[in-house]
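Handout, page 2. Input:
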Amino acid sequence: MDMHIIVFAVLGLALLVGGAELLVRGASRFAAAVGVTPLVIGLTVVAYGTSAPEMAVSIHAALSGQADIAAGNVVGSNIFNVLFILGLAAMIAPLVVSQQLVRLDVPIMIAVSVAMLVLGMDGNISRVEGLVLFAGVVAYTIWSIRQSRRETKEVRDEYEKHFGGSRSRRGELLIDLLFIAGGLGLLVIGSGWLVDGATALARFMGVGELVIGLTIVAAGTSLPELATSVVAAVKGERDIAVGNIVGSNIFNILSVLGLSSALNPGGIVISPTLLHVDIPVMIAVAVACLPIFFTGHRISRPEGALFFGYYISYTLYLILNATSHAAAGTFSTGMVYGVIPLTFVTLLILGMRATRQKGSRADTR
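Output:
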């Protein structure tokens, strides 16, 4: 395998991350300059901007006929965002979910995840279905902006602290626009290099493009979300850490998948493996957020470690299965019939306990 392919893939990833940073910085400053509140900037501009690498890669892959990378990138990124990033952020500092919008967004994240499964059951997400998904992100954005007005002062202050300092003067708007244009340019170039490198890597390793899309490409394009959420967790800005992940996951399905399908004449092919294994995993991960987000409105360190451990297990399963390792069947059976049911029972008990505690506190008032 030519080393220059690996070099181009790494450079492509670097350009994607750098492009996303320029895009988010320029768009945030521009939005602040024209009077958009820091809360709306955090909920929309930043959450969507950190998903720009997924958008660039999936559109390029779809137009290049590499549907497994296009769809695998969306599904893999959503799994990575919740299990790896949210798990890591919670291990750094327990995440208290006080943001009302996040608790409303989690059911939406579950709904759009199920919608992807339903639309893909015929093995394809057509252009029309892609347009429907993309229309959904427009409606969701408008709804988010309206709901943001109901947020508590605590949440508004947190976003003001994080994003309020990026306000540009009117004379600097041209620089902000150059940042946006430069970021978009780097995303276009970087996506091409990364997709070409990932395809060559899949051939060299003897694994399918879907596995590469679900792992290396998905993790790489999620680096902006990783940086945003981990830095926010370290700073104690926990609503931003959680809101960034949930908003990005919704955006990935509605906008990234929707636009990729709409721009490709044949839509995007959904492979049987993705349909029967990885999308159900993505849905299960989204559903697992419900009891955790509602048990005392916090994600504790043990719950974060549980999420993180699940991502390691999921990645190990993909590698064992892709290489036809003898332990793949045993590992899969143990996860499906042992670990996962035990986890859901544990989460159910936690949820019931939290509900009873709330009832007891209410009775004593």
